[in-house]
Amino acid sequence: MALLKDKKAVIIGDRDGIPGPAIAECAKSAGAEVVFSSTECFV
C-alpha cells in the first residue's frame, strides 16, 4: 500500500533528531517523489 503514491514531498530533517535523508527514504518507500531533502539545525 503506497500512502503517498504520486505525491511530491519536501523533507526537512533535524540535526539532533531524524536526518532528512532517513525521512526521504521512508517517503520514497511510501510512494512519494522527494523533490527536496535537507537536514537543518533548529537552535
Secondary structure blueprint with pairings:
Elements: E1 8-14, H1 20-29, E2 33-40
Parallel strand pairs: 1-2
Account of the 3D structure:
With 43 residues, the protein is of the alpha+beta class. It has one domain (8-40). It is 23% helix and 35% strand. The chain has one helix spanning 20-29; strands at residues 8-14, 33-40. The longest helix has 10 residues, at 20-29. The mean pLDDT is 92.
* Largest sheet, strands/sense/barrel: 2 strands, parallel
- Counting H and I runs of at least 4 residues, what is the number of helices? 1
Question: What coarse outline follows from CA principal-axis ratios?
Answer: elongated
End-to-end gap: 37 Å
Strand content: 25-35%
Q: What level of helicity do the residues show?
A: 10-25%
Radius of gyration: 11 Å
- Order of strands, widest sheet: 1-2
Mean pLDDT comes to: 92
Could you list the spans in which at least 5 consecutive residues all have pLDDT below 50? none
Number of strands: 2
